[in-house]
Amino acid sequence: MSATIPAKDRGQAGETFETAESGASGDGLPRAVSHAEQPDAAARELRERLGDTALELVVVFCAPSYDRIALAAALADRFGTVPIIGCTTAGEIGPGGYTTGAVVAVGFPAEDFSIVTALVDHVDRFEIADSTEIAQTLLSARDRAMTARPVPLGETARSFAMLLIDGLAMSEETVVSALHNALIDIPLFGASAGDDLHFERTFVLHDGAFHPNAAVVALFTTTRPFTVFRTQHFVSSDRKMVVTGADPQHRIVTEINAEPAGREYARLVGLEGEPLTPMIFAAHPVVVRVGGQYHVRSIQKVNDDESLTFFCAIDEGIVLTVAEGVDPVANFDGLINSIEAEVGAPDLILGCDCILRRLEMEQRQLNAVMSERLARHRVVGFCAYGEQVNGMHVNQTFTGVAIGGR
After folding, report:
1. Which pLDDT tens digit goes with each residue over 35-65?
2. What are the residue ranges spanned by the domains of the chain?
3. The domain made up of 234-325 is a member of CATH 3.40.50
4. CB 3.0-4.6 Å disulfide test: which of 4, 14, 74, 101 passes with 39?
């Protein structure tokens, strides 16, 4: 495990870019999307569309179909000394809402943000003690950066953290819990990188390269109002199941109620004998009660032996409850109302949306409606293999940070 801080001198303003089409800083914080197939063309479009604002950091979410080496090099070339972080996705959220096969970028102006980042290698070997070193490195770098700023952000500046992590290393619970504890009172959100439901390899982007089996932690400090949030559109039912056989290391459940897991799950959701697909798992998740609240434990896939692989940690003896959905659009509208009550109309919502939520939107033909909502409220982000909020790794949720105006 290692933690590194980019070499950029945070006391200097970032590069300035050309003003271009929608997504420039005149319309909230700068954000952009490119569907260009060639990495250099995509990087050029993003550079142009983020406008002429001096940037402290660029966050990029890219479809796994891109040549990662070429894309990382093209982004580094186009953005120069401005640090870039990001990850691969299972779908993107651009300025126009849901999209696929694209690269999405959001810029954080140097005038309003001081940001430091760390790369965490070998997350499959992450230990709780590592979090102290990472947190201390980030906090010390933040304090130095704040002291060196030509115009200090001031005493009202607050910090939040973002975690982007390999979505297949099965290390999210350990990493997010330890980091949240080490960062003490700093709110944290994040998500697990995806690869368009291939479940083969996922990557995070840091310091000009895509890294497997790794995570990126970014610590943002700003005087702008912000709120870290989480929402899910599921409630518990009266249908219970007990995990009676499991392989916790691989997040596999072999038995539920002493029956083959896949078969018993299908019976409990009323689909006995039906093939279990991602669409089924999206529509019929299970939840577990933790700390007085229900959290979704989504199923990734059914295996040949009728066992079930989950997106979250699982173990024998856990009581799972079949969840029932509520209106996802009304749930999103309620989230926006609470955000606006806290920070006003957001200039940006940096959002992490579970891929199973998006599959459900497609299944229920709500994609266009939700895309309109996402675009209207300036949401950019990606579809993930799991989401993090403070010390929890969760599924089938929408997490992120909403940032208000000055």
Report:
1. 999 999 999 999 999 998 899 999 999 999 9
2. 31-231+332-403, 234-325
3. no
4. 74
